[in-house]
Structure prediction request, 480 residues.
Amino acid sequence: MVSSNITHDTEHLCQSCAQKNTSVFCKAKVEYLTEVNSQKVFNTFKKGQTIFNEGSYPFGVFCINSGKVKLAHLGDDGKEQIIRLLKGGDIVGYRALLSNERYSATAVALEDTQVCFIPKELFIHILKNDAGLTFEMMKLLSDELHKTELKLTHLAQKPVRERLAEILLFIKETYGFEDDGITLNVRLSREEIANLVGTATESTIRLLSEFKRDSMVELDGKKIKIINQKKLLKTANLQD
Amino acid sequence: MVSSNITHDTEHLCQSCAQKNTSVFCKAKVEYLTEVNSQKVFNTFKKGQTIFNEGSYPFGVFCINSGKVKLAHLGDDGKEQIIRLLKGGDIVGYRALLSNERYSATAVALEDTQVCFIPKELFIHILKNDAGLTFEMMKLLSDELHKTELKLTHLAQKPVRERLAEILLFIKETYGFEDDGITLNVRLSREEIANLVGTATESTIRLLSEFKRDSMVELDGKKIKIINQKKLLKTANLQD
DNA sequence: TAACGAATATGACAAAAGTCATACTGGTTC
DNA sequence: GAACCAGTATGACTTTTGTCATATTCGTTA
Prediction:
């Protein structure tokens, strides 16, 4: 929240928000949506900018309008572990708010990103009154927990090679392809991919080279093209 | 739910439940508690018995009255990954219920365990009407998510030795000590400990031997005594 | 009490993954 | 275009961890 592009706008209405149908939050009752509309703060983050920082206190919740965001823990030795990838329609920062704790992770924009900030009090107020929304939020948390538990199991039991293949497919699921239908629609550094997989950067680079050699992917700088998804899926050894 | 000890009892009242003050679920409004009381099914599981199985459909939620339970994923190769340890006052099986999915994990009693089963419809009904309870449930999920994310980061970044030390301390936090003040109050096999840490059984055995040599623990069959918690904490290298 | 099997323990080895050093590449700035 | 830097790539090596084989112990049952 260091950016200067903060606007209490009337331009970006929740009612006409592009994410109205995908975001949990925008499923609140109409009466609350109006309230959100008047209190929310529209904000833009440039690529690389921090939306919030591990250790600081949450004052509200962020609703991503457009763009891409990584959510990461900083390990004891300073190495980051990316725990979620977010896109338009997702909300961030609710975990700490609900647990009434400081942020346990840092959110950074992976590209220019637009977000709506909804103040804590309003968020909590709506949750306490809109049972439907609360139930949706609970489901969302529940799904997130499930995904994280699966990741945990895979991290514990699968070799790096399989996990990397899995992550590439996960990135595809999350952000999809570019217009060409094969290029992953996000630019991540090798280090960031490593921090998603939970391995060393060099290992990631090495394995990506192998994947290229085995004609599963094509590499062009930060562009990653998936040219044999079937083989990649096999490499990931997924069955759930 | 294969046990034959099922009783629609009037004996075990929620109102006088030993876990009334610790369990989230028992914080429901009094009117609902009465309802729960009449619909819940009291059940006993012997050590080693399965409470529910990965892949099957949830028909309700389990409230642990007394005893100890492990919740584990079965990895693709059949190796289990223990994702939670549960005790009296905890509830299990809510995750799948809320996400409207099959169980993604298996719950097994680590010792003789008493549970109350609350039918799905009632559980959902209460959640949809008791905003306070729903909010509590949300917090619970939120905390669980946080813990799991932390585990994920540690699994990705810390060596087995540190993770084992951490798990021993975690077991102590969860189940505490026996009356002697040093023996961990649960019997887990070396394999189970390994499946908590996310490592091979032999590695766990080896490291426990080291911990013993370095006089951090004492081993007596499945009994594990923590004789130098400070040193163990240092070995775990925790700072959060 | 003997005997059995399962769990624990330990050694030897293999495989996986991380680290360090060193190139190479691509994009940026001057 | 030269120079520079960060990111990428690759090789050589070390460390960590897993695997397999084999004792050994423990608790259980006959």
Summary: Chain A touches chain B through 47 residues (CB under 8 Å). The helical segments of chain A are 30-39, 94-99, 120-129, 131-157, 160-175, 190-197, 201-213, 229-236. The beta strands of chain A are 41-45, 50-52, 60-66, 68-74, 80-87, 91-92, 106-109, 113-119, 217-220, 223-226.
